[in-house]
Write a structure and sequence with these properties.
Number of strands: 6
Strand content: 5-15%
CATH class of the largest domain: Alpha Beta
Shape: elongated
Structural class: alpha/beta
């Protein structure tokens, strides 16, 4: 059988990205308690409440205001959240999908975000044990990551598989789907996370859409082995 490759997005595809945020909030809450004496449970609840009400980007500032703390500490807290060793666990559905896919595919992860942060997530989840390559998108092309085709071309080169026998699966219609399409890959949109109900354009419409990780191997199989018949 000719080699084929399945390339996967990380955040909100292989695991819920919110779990990483909550892990970071727990570290920040512990710091605030140790340094300023504010009970960590109250700090954590305040941070989570900010996210639930749509103020994720200003959650730390809101926490400082709530507890009358100097907002000048926010940059330090941001770095603490980014650099912490996350407490994450691979879900059973992800493990089963990867175990199945490994039997017939070369596997890679292509992820946006700061490499040092993403590497910690991957290590915490144990994903590095299941894939052949991990590629950090911002290290290629214009440095902004997906949807830059250069990031997809970099992972294809590492896998050594032609683009027409590569499938990319991710949850973001623009960064994942549109970028992979521009690079000549087959595409699967995983209807998960904040983009689960996103509107798509012609450029960001995937070849197939799935709702569960368990559906990815069969969808990828169909695209590479059967859809190719109609293209050739």
């Amino acid at each position: 059988m000719k080699p084929r490759a399945l390339i996967l997005d990380l955040d909100d595809t292989l695991y819920p990205e919110r779990r990483h945020l909550l892990s970071g909030f727990a570290v920040a809450a512990r710091y605030v308690e140790d340094v300023f004496g504010v009970p960590r449970a109250e700090v954590f609840r305040t941070l989570v409440a900010a996210v639930r009400t749509g103020h994720r980007s200003t959650a730390l500032q809101a926490m400082c205001e709530t507890f009358d703390l100097d907002p000048a500490i926010v940059p330090d807290l941001v770095e603490l959240v980014r650099d912490h060793r996350p407490q994450l666990r691979m879900r059973r559905d992800c493990r089963r999908m990867l175990e199945r896919a490994r039997r017939g595919w070369r596997l890679a992860i292509l992820t946006n975000g700061r490499p040092r942060v993403q590497a910690r997530k991957i290590a915490a989840l144990g994903l590095d044990l299941f894939v052949d390559h991990v590629v950090f998108a911002c290290e290629h092309g214009d440095g902004r990551g997906k949807p830059d085709p250069a990031a997809f071309q970099a992972v294809i080169a590492k896998l050594g598989v032609p683009a027409e026998r590569c499938v990319f699966a991710g949850n973001d219609p623009w960064c994942d789907v549109a970028g992979a399409r521009r690079a000549g890959l087959w595409t699967i949109r995983v209807r998960r996370g904040s983009f689960a109900h996103a509107e798509v354009t012609e450029a960001s419409e995937a070849d197939l859409v799935v709702s569960r990780l368990s559906e990815i191997p069969d969808a990828a199989e169909a695209l590479v082995e059967y859809a190719a018949v109609y293209v050739s």
